[in-house]
Please model this.
Amino acid sequence: MNRTLVIGYGNTLRGDDGAGICAAERAAGRFPGVDILTVHELQPELVETMSRYPDVIFLDAAVEGSGIRADIIEPATDHRPDGSHAHSPATLLSLCRNLYGRAPERSLLIAIPGQNFEFGEQLSPFTEMMVEEAIEEVGHFLKS
Amino acid sequence: MSRTITVSPVTRIEGHAKITIRLDDQGNVGEARFHVNEFRGFEKFCEGRMLWEMAGITSRICGICPTSHLITSAKAGDDILAIDIPETAEKLRRLITLAQWLQSHALSFFHLSSPDFLLGFDADPAKRNIFGLIALDKEFTRRGIRLRKFGQEIIEVLGTRKIHTPWAVAGGVREPFEASKKDYLLNWIPEAKETALLALDTLKEIHVKFEHDIPNFGNFRSLFLGMVADDGALEYYDGKLRLMDGAGNIIEDKVDPKKYHDYFGEAVEPWSYLKFPYYRPLGYPKGMYRVGPLARVNICDYIDTPMAEAERRVFKALAGDAGVVNNSFYYHYARLIEILFSVEKIEMLLNDPAILGSNIRARAMINREQGIGASEAPRGTLFHEYWVNQDGVLQKLNLIIATAQNNLAMNRTVHQLAMQYIDGNKVTEGILNRVEAGIRCFDPCLSCSTHAVGRMPIHLQLLDAEDHLLSEIRR
Model:
């Protein structure tokens, strides 16, 4: 499969924490070569799907920062799970490699800064702007 | 000098808790307590919300069993509307309840408890996790993840998302079942059955491996509570309550869940946010009872699916002359029997033409000012009781959660394990883990019961009577 998997995650009821999901949903309409998953948190059940893709992009909200941050993610080398049912992108990649013998060749985590994480389904104006930048970052990664 | 051992937080459970064990001057175990030390207060902030919002709101209580709250809340709404819901809606609610059992039980056995069982209670905690399991048996781990995924897939097909779906509502459900998804879900069945049987075979080997530990894992007589169908079969959605004692005698039977407060009270202790439900006629704390898989498989007369029923008979043989299996370690066994039952029953429901109906919701105005819903959540019987005004605005609510009903038994289990393993002067990682594993038998969901958030590495402290730190272990 030559398509790219985009995983947006977060809590859409906690304001800017839903930025990753918002960005993933908007990306779906702009890039024909991507498949989108939106989830509340990263669980081991995603690993089997991830193992079928050469590239994966994670979109998440960040508590800190004033601009988009895009980092290449490698599988975690410290084999300690983050918790009982939610994991970091690096741990998921490691699970993917260990369980299926392969992981996406390229993995990118795009962190979208938020300002307001209180109850509510609206993004702050600042994070709305950052979501658009995150989608541009998705485009750059797909072209690279 | 007396001392106190503190285990905080307890790991690989859902939520945040700690254990304290007080030692006397001779180093003998005195008091042992399981504390739930976080609070979220859904019962308070839901006041003022509309009845029709409650299923969606209360499903947010938990990320593991949101569907159980969704269904139970919708049933409380049915009671307030004073209506019978359409056949299709009931069967779809049954289907999603079974999917909830499947995914939650798979998480408990494969993700949370198998590291102890397959790698050992004394294994390096850095390896006693899912990566350690992968190194030991990749196929077993993969199957466990896929079994849970099957449950989540059903929930997503019905509710359009894996967690926190607002799909059920007072009067029925919001969306019908898409016929095109039926074959997709049915294709999972053979693999799910194979995995359930594999897990049962593995657990029987575990029973042999830990034959010396098992007798200490919450092995005591108590009452058992759960739902059964009118003919005594295992029930999960809409049965009557049955209460059995630790000798297998039926104490209460055919009790309407709407009368639960005539039979059960709730005590509080200053050292825990988790309430202590008890059986009123015996008082507190003598009225201790257990709920969940061990209770359900113990109290039912039979299971109406062939493979699970065959396994139930093997399970019941463990009871011997007692007539009931009293050892809490066998929660795991009962949980796997319920996984098998869920898979078989899901297959039956998916093949039932009634689930494809389009009449999925009955509508009515507020017809009662009080209503109660009950169902069997993965961890036990769940009750939602609501009081509304004529406009359907919540005036008051009471949620009785499965984990709270096991609170007395969990405390008793901690005490029993501490008595067996702690000699007062030496607290090792393996001992610490056995005490935690006693709690994990019950698969407590503290997020539901109080509402806890957060997770930290484990921290055990030995304190003297004046709370001076004597020694500690962290991981």
About this structure: The interface with chain A takes residues 12-14, 60, 63-64, 107, 111-112, 126-127, 129-132, 134-135, 138, 141-142, 145-146, 148-149, 152, 162-164, 455 of chain B (CB under 8 Å). The longest helix of chain B spans residues 87-119.
